[in-house]
Design goal:
Blueprint lengths: L7 H11 L4 H11 L2 H18 L4 H8 L3 H13 L3 H8 L14
Helix pairs in contact: 3-4, 3-5
Length: 106
Amino acid sequence: MNKKIKTDAVDHLFEAILTLKTPEECYAFFEDVCTVNELLSLSQRYEVAKMLREKRTYLDIAESTGASTATISRVNRSLNYGSDGYDMVFKRLGFEKLDDENGAEK
């Protein structure tokens, strides 16, 4: 866990998010909390992470999502050296991590 972001205020935000039960509730809450650009940036990073796990190329990801190569690289670094948050969510959603050698699902 990154101690730089661990604050009471962040804890309170996460507790609030955990109360959300439907996509409609998420839309209502996040539209109030985030700007449109912030929300679109978060969703873009998530899509980039999914595509990286599918072994898509940077060029394909950039064309499909509009993400810059710098953003794709940052997301890739998080996937490889981060806190495994993306992989935890992907697993819970039924996306399996791909094997690095042959692209087969683990």
